[in-house]
Amino acid sequence: MAAAVGLLLIALSGRYGYHRDEFYFLTAGKHLAWGYPDQPPFVPVLARLMSAIDAHSVVVLRLPASLAGAGIVAMTAPIAREFGASKPAQVLAAAVMALAAIVLAGGHLLGTTAFNLLAWAVLLWLVIRLLRTDDARLWVPIGLVAGIGLLDNTLVAFLAFGLAVGLIAVGPRRHFRSGWLWAGVVVAAALWLPYLVWQAQHGWPQIAESRAIAAGQSGTSQPRWLVLPFQVLLVGPATAPVWIAGLVRLLRSPDFRWARSLGVAYVAVAVVVVVTGGKGYYLGGFYPLLVGAGAEPALAWVRRQASPRRAVVSFVVFSLPVVVIALPVLPQRAFMGSGLVGLNWDLGEQIGWKAYVQEVAAAYHNAGSPAAIVTSNYGEAGAIDHYGGAYGLPHAYSGQTGYWDWGPPPASATSVLAVGFDRTDVTRYCSEALQVGRLDNHHDFNNAEQHRPIWRCQLRESWSTIWPQLKST
Prior knowledge:
Elements: H1 2-12, H2 20-28, H3 42-53, H4 58-82, H5 87-98, H6 101-108, H7 112-133, H8 139-150, H9 156-170, H10 179-201, H11 205-214, H12 227-235, H13 240-252, H14 260-276, H15 287-305, H16 308-326, H17 332-336, H18 345-348, H19 353-366, E1 372-375, H20 378-387, E2 396-398, H21 401-405, E3 415-419, H22 423-429, E4 430-438, E5 453-459, H23 463-470
Parallel strand pairs: 1-2, 1-3
Antiparallel strand pairs: 3-5, 4-5
Helix pairs in contact: 1-4, 2-3, 2-20, 3-4, 4-5, 4-6, 4-7, 4-15, 5-15, 6-7, 6-16, 7-8, 8-10, 9-14, 13-14, 13-15, 19-20
């Protein structure tokens, strides 16, 4: 099943095009550092490595994420086995995760999600083994995996918090007296330390990024009241009863009192995500655990209610819509007319970037080749940096996230092509502003960039004055 998921992700990885985040990662990979305003260094390093293999292949770029998606499925079966699941129940657990929306959508893109989910799966498997066998030495590999995971995504810290709350609330508390636990903490902290130092040196920009997400400024942000209902969609409505059964089993079953802290950890992290305004998928790393715990009772219920063949057919039929929503299964033109972008914003963000850069190139040359190109967001800048060389475009600048840290245009660049800004923003910084074009994907597809204006702009102030004002998350 893991191999099938990996092959499916690889086969579909080149169907549409690059995501805006992937352009950003490619550029970040050219500015390697221990941290960035919005993330640790792991994915930019991967982007640089994959770009060195083939700088123009989206399939190659996404290969690590595809393999991570397969790894999540592969880890779900041993998690189920730790809870005493039979082989058929282990197969069911792997199948549920193989068709989980978050695994498929996360494994489709090079981003932090797939590697974060894999890190959580490995961590939870190790913690389950530790709790079941009482082998405290496992805290050291747990710390090692946690440290590596923290270099991909700070959400691993949420899991650590949840586990601590669970152990304090329901035990076994004796682990806090173990030197092995604190050795694991030291290992994790040592690996994470360079990123923390970078954040401290730059004024903790990750906190500002988190506040922006809580305020709804991300394309995938959600209101707080939707976080918990959204959990049903993360794995899939048809298979939600499996992980719900797992959560109930962890919290209530006398047979799994030794693992009750894991159920409490889920509840604790869910509360934190809702209170802080995090995204619903932040809880996604728990589902290999919950599915593994719920697989055996779910399989027993299915056997009582239906024949195995009917159960398999129903499972596949009801899970197919999840695949269509999570992955670019539909031809691009069919997707653009389907309305599915409302269910999966990220698929829409993979359409039209090359056409947008062509529009920027036409405006740039028609406007007399201004001295610099400045964009309203990192997606526009990243796309220009990736495709623009073929159209005679220079490196792009932006005030968003890492692009702001990479600096403003040179002081002499007072003539600017401003891409994606509203008129009010342009007139704020420019004494002369003329709209010379607009972004158009030529499919009349309404994603975040469609019909954004392009301006020929003459600055009224120096970059040393303007650049601090352009900084954004």
